[in-house]
Amino acid sequence: MKYSLIIPVFNRPDEVDELLDSLLHQKLKDFEVIIVEDGSQTPCRDVCYRYASQLPLRYFMKENSGPGQSRNYGVERATGDYVLILDSDVVLPEGYLQAVDDELRREPCDAFGGPDRAADTFTPVQKAISYSMTSFFTTGGIRGGKKKLDKFYPRSFNMGIRREVYNKLNGFSKMRFGEDIDFSIRIIKSGFKTRLFPDAWVYHKRRTDFRKFWRQVFNSGIARINLYKKYPDSLKLVHLLPAVFTVGIILLTLMFLGGLVGAFVMFQMGYGMEQALPLAISALSLAMLAFYAAVIFLDANCQTGNLWVAALSVRAAFTQLMGYGCGFIKAWWRRCVLGKDEFEAYKRNFYK
């Protein structure tokens, strides 16, 4: 067996059904599937049993410990030369495994990963979130599947690694957020080679509503500071941008409101042309906010060809940047200023 697909699951039987169905259509058949149920209240056992006669599939149930430890649990039971770590909310195109195999034959490496896309069947909200997570105007393009300027850090929604390397590094740490980046950092620091496989992409549903999306990116911001405390050289300028954006939005909002209040007060006091200055400040602040929203809307419309998705992408972009920025700032204050220990904001509901 060459490839072992490790899939941790928490309360997502419907998504597992779609993922397993996509595995039936893979062109390359040299793989096994290991499903690890991470203490779900709504298990996918029956779904897995339906596919057991069609796929080389093994199903395990364990107490909840988070996705990282569940992946380790699955890898301990794997037989493949390579382990492919997938999230339960992905669907694989039929050429996925063949693309992985072709890349490894062309240029072998120790760990790798691929990009993600939105399928036509996704909801408008899922498409908007997918746009936000991959757009140049929100992430600088670092998660959009383009060639990176520095080393490539595989993410756990679509990540592969030689099992020998996985075992040598003891797999994922006990971090519940940012554990995939932590693992990638350790892979690279240990001298192993990582690569992006551009053609080994997956359809990735991500979060299904903006509340869950906020929770995800807020914890991602916290995780970035937690990673910085472990690996100071891991923090890059691009990681600071959401926090800068968040502070900027707050200041622009205060300027807009302050300008309106100032103009109203001056009007009540009988001033004339003097009202123009606070009104100009309000107008400028609003214009700057509107300009960024317009850029997101126009680019998202070009990318998706859907005006409604483009409109939702504006909300998704602000949710992503401000959610991440707020988590980043909170963690920076708590860990770097106050000297507190590692923590997470949303623990119970993040995986639901």
What does this structure look like?
The chain is α/β, with parallel strands linked by helices and 352 residues long. The protein is 52% helix and 12% strand. The chain has helices spanning 13-23, 45-51, 67-76, 96-106, 124-134, 136-139, 163-168, 179-189, 210-230, 237-268, 276-304, 307-337; strands spanning 3-9, 31-38, 57-62, 82-86, 90-91, 111-113, 116-117, 158-162, 194-196, 202-204. The model is unreliable at 348-352 (pLDDT under 50).
Itemize the secondary structure elements and their pairings:
Elements: E1 3-9, H1 13-23, E2 31-38, H2 45-51, E3 57-62, H3 67-76, E4 82-86, E5 90-91, H4 96-106, E6 111-113, E7 116-117, H5 124-134, H6 136-139, E8 158-162, H7 163-168, H8 179-189, E9 194-196, E10 202-204, H9 210-230, H10 237-268, H11 276-304, H12 307-337
Parallel strand pairs: 1-2, 1-4, 2-3, 6-9, 7-10
Antiparallel strand pairs: 4-8, 5-10, 6-8
Helix pairs in contact: 1-2, 5-12, 9-12, 10-11, 10-12, 11-12
